[in-house]
Amino acid sequence: MALPTAEIGVFGGSGFYSLLEEAEEYRVDTPFGAPSSPVMIGQLGGRTVAFLPRHGKDHQLPPHMINYRANVWAMKQLGVTRIIGPNACGSLQQDVRPGDFVICDQFVDRTWGRKDTFYDGPTTTHVSSADPYCSVMRQVAIDSAAMLGITAHPTGTVVVIQGPRFSTRSESKWFASQGWEVINMTQYPECYLARELEICYCNISLITDHDAGAEGSEPVTNDEVVRVFNENNEKVRALIHAMVPALPDQRACECASALTGAAF
User: Annotated catalytic residue: which of 95, 105, 211, 223?
Assistant: First the structure.
């Protein structure tokens, strides 16, 4: 069966396994193996959207076992030029509260051993990740959240840990002392791989808990993460539904030319 084309991609995170009410399911083969699940493609706000739950439909893939390259390549293969990446995150700062959203503009990578590039040679390619998230998409997310009355912090740094374990108290205090706002297990290499393929990427961090090192907080549990995410799923859907039709038809951002001058 020939694959259709889609303009916008959405990766679903923990507790967020469906988006499109009427969609067709497609299996996409990639040079990097199978994506986390078949891709659902349908219409949203007059745009064709591809939806893929990054952990799989049954949440069978822990963060360190996700085939990020296959997931992002599948989106590229479908013609996607923009990706929205909502995910469950912990807060490292007291003013970032459970139920808030953070529209991150930076990440810090603390993972190891993940396949995190498409460019293994023979041409050496260095893609800048100085500003890893699309500035245009971020502004659309910020404006859409304000319109919906959703508390969304307009900037923030997400530190990405390997998982599947949560942080120790000392690790969490260390991350918080750096001024970083958010902690997560899946943002890297997902967002950077999108940049390597000149795909715009926007992170939406849904805060589910205060991390273990935050003053006065109890250690995070998986049950609590899922509970808060489920409570806020409708806000996530509403934000995506508002963002998709508001995205400009044409791209005039830095993401679309990320490979210019990157190859030796």
Answer: 211
Catalytic site residue 209? Answer: yes
pLDDT tens across 210-234, in order? Answer: 886 665 566 666 676 667 767 778 8
Reported pTM: 0.93
Q: What is the 3-state secondary structure (H, E, C) of the chain?
A: CCCCCCCEEEEECCCCCCCCCCEEEECCCECCECCCCCEEEEEECCEEEEEEECCCCCCCCCHHHCCHHHHHHHHHHCCCCEEEEEEEEEECCCCCCCCCEECCCEEEEECCCCCCCCCCCCCCECCCCCCCCCHHHHHHHHHHHHHHCCCEECCCEEEEECCCCCCCHHHHHHHHHCCCCEEECCHHHHHHHHHHCCCEEEEEEEEEEECCCCCCCCCCCHHHHHHHHHHHHHHHHHHHHHHHHHCCCCCCCHHHHCCCCCEC
Query: Tens of pLDDT along 158-174?
Result: 999 999 999 999 999 99
Q: Residue length, the chain?
A: 264
**Architecture of the domain spanning 8-257:** 3-Layer(aba) Sandwich (3.40)
Say which of 100, 209, 223, 249 is annotated catalytic. Answer: 209
